[in-house]
Amino acid sequence: MKKIYLLTLLLFFAFFTNAQVTVQGVPRNDIKPNSIHRNELKTTTTVTDFSDIQYWVGTGSKKAAFVVQWNDGKNPDALVWGFKWDGNATGEDMLKAIAKADHRFYSLLYQGTTFGTAIGGLGFDLNGQGTNGLYKSGNTTYPMYPLNGIINTTAYDFDDYTAIDAANDHWKSGWTTGYWSYWVKNPTDAAFGYSSLGASSRVLENNSWDLWNFYPGMVDQPISTTLTPVSAYSSPTTFTDGYFMVNEDWYGHTNGSVNFINNNGQINYRVYSNANNNQAFGATTQYGTIYGDKFYFISKQAADGGDTQYTPGGRLVVANATTMQKIAGFNTIGDGDGRSFLGVNEHKGYIGTTTGIFLFNIDNLQVGSLVPGTNGKGQIGNMIRTSQYVFAVTQSGGVLVINPNTNAVVQTIAGAFYSIVQAKDGSVWGIQQQKLVSINPTTFATLEYPIPTTKYFGDWGAWYAGRLTYSTQQNALYWINSVSAFASGTQIVKFDVTAKTFNENFAAVPGQTGTYKQIPYGAGLRVNPLTDELILNTTESGFGAHYQKNWIHTFSNTGTLTNTKILNDYYWFPSIAVFPDNNAPVVKSTFPSQTTVNSTTTIDLKTVVTDTDNLAIAIVKSIKSNSNTGVVTAVINTNDELVLTPQGTGAATIILTFNSNGKLVDKTLTVHASTSTLGTAEVKKLELGIYPNPATDVLTIKTQDRVMSTVVYDASGKVMNTQFNNGQINVSTLTRGIYILKVVTDKAVYQEKFIKN
């Protein structure tokens, strides 16, 4: 009887001992305690002092060390970070702070359990490619990505997770096939001791150590003799040495995002969200552009209701173009959904929507009113700014030509256009299904050039920014051929603007073998203004999970494929590549600082200024100031010529402003004027009469010559919106003041002042 009693007591003791083993505070009777006790022996490591730690997270007077040991055979196998704080902090606080700060480190957590937060998995991106993410139960269709370094689960299902980049990441997770054991060392302790508590219950002490040691196969592992300090994480803070890829992102799951590809090939994901505490854009971000020092992101809707990770930013988000720091966000941009944005001048932008073009005040960051005459034509597509006008593609109203000074539509070019660009030589080109249309940038006369065999389709039903693009270094255009409005082709087409020739086999879209092929997505194709390389983004055909596969290809300007980058598996749906604008325009040294005029004199401004980031021909020229209009008048005509007309004898200081995509440079010109010699232009003025002067509604021109064109300028040299018909100019819409009328006849050029009452 005593033997049975003794046996029973021993069995009870063994069961009780097993039951007392805890993992992160959770009692486990499936783990033997003897192996744990062996690990309580003192361990000598190469990191024995806090001065060896290289990467510190947090601020404060207290400090602790955080160690992770994966036991996966990869080097370095055990990594150490430092954590600083004031007041009270737990082991959980330290882990989360490091996961948020170091974008290489990520975790799988089960939060809110009876025992606090359970640590199910820990990972580290060894090759620095940002491929942090997990598959659950082998489900590659819906990968899981960390937010602030954390992927959450709601069960002890840690064994089901694998790393997306298993070959190049540290990653271990588990609960029944392996588990993370927790070890702590306080300042008074001689060695690490096994912690029966979880990270939520662990109260950190100043100069303490926390170590997470993974036991694969439930087999205990000795603490490593080498703890390798993690190098400091360097998150990009400026974005100038590469290019951006704006993403629609995964509709129904996440709001829009933007990635940045460094010149060294590093892909930095969600750079706007990382810089702005997990804020994002609106739903289906379709367009982005840099103007001046700001980046404008346009989304179709204000927010994606399915996004539980990122805070939506609205249909228009404005950010600092260099740092990605948020400046402003707008849910409403007029009466419609977002389509495009165009910087018009340093004070004003145009927002393209589904219902028309709306003004945007760049100075005050305010959405304004509808530009008259731009509604009722369906969606607004892409828009371009030449030195004189704005050209905007519409869904059903052709191309609208807008005077940017008055916001008035001055011309409509009929046709079913999909996109529009300006070439290096200044010519404007619209594209239709099977023809290019040349548009004169000042007279708006058109010429058609049929595309020989291929076709080009846009998709107004699911609008994107168009696959027609241009080179700033060659006088050439490029686009991707189409099969239909819903299917792209496999060829990049080149058009030589000078020779007016087509190369429909300039380059092939890669990945055309196998069942599922690469297809361009979104705008698909853009040209790097600095390198003249073509950037092509593709995804995989087949719908569904195939859209997780995304590539970015680089082609030389001769059509050679030079580089391919593979993005993390995710439903990015890239919409458009955008290039930083780092350089201001430069006025050539040959431009004079002073000049002498005794008759009307013109100075051609088209070639006096350059910009390595943008089209030189599109630089906007304007008169900033004129110190003495009584001595000389200065206007810039539609041919980008500075016209100086002496009004008396003396000197005047004229400041010209050159605006290249929102970046400005001024040039001062001193003009010495004299009217002592009556020039030809002055004699011709005697043959021209205008009346009444002052005028209220109509100004009549009287001349024996045939009038070819008329232009009215205000005192600053800006072109005013007026109509000439049967010898008369309607000036009723002008405000009171002094204006200059330029009349070009078949025999001479005249300029006269008149007053508007």
Automatic annotation (TrEMBL):
Q: Where is the Secretion system C-terminal sorting domain?
A: 690-755
State which residue ranges cross the membrane. Answer: none
Query: What InterPro entries does the database record attribute to this sequence?
Result: DUF5074, Secre_tail, WD40/YVTN_repeat-like_dom_sf
Q: Which Pfam families match?
A: DUF5074, Por_Secre_tail
Q: Does the keyword Signal apply?
A: yes
Signal peptide coordinates: 1-19
On the tree of life, the source organism's domain of life is Bacteria
- Annotated keywords: Signal
Q: What is this protein called?
A: DUF5074 domain-containing protein
Which organism does this sequence originate in? Chryseobacterium paridis
Q: What is the lineage of its organism?
A: Bacteria, Pseudomonadati, Bacteroidota, Flavobacteriia, Flavobacteriales
